[in-house]
Amino acid sequence: MSAEIVTIEDLEKFRIRLLTDLAKLMQKPDPVEPLLRSAQVRKLLNVSPGTLQKLRVKGILPYARLDGSFRYRLMDVEHALESLKQ
Known about the structure:
Elements: H1 8-26, E1 35-37, H2 38-45, H3 49-57, E2 64-66, E3 69-73, H4 74-85
Antiparallel strand pairs: 1-3, 2-3
């Protein structure tokens, strides 16, 4: 069985690392970006339900399914809007 000697310097480094990690954990979490519903996205993009479906199928507009409905991130909608303008 080998023994290791812990110095005061080692303890000080550990204390600083521990306090840094605790400070990170106690920070406020990043605000969660709200997900938009299909009707909101259609209004923003000014498209019909069929066109919105085509954008999903072609992979132009990423989406998530939540409780049986499609949801979209605002950032993805803005990106799709720019691609539609081109």
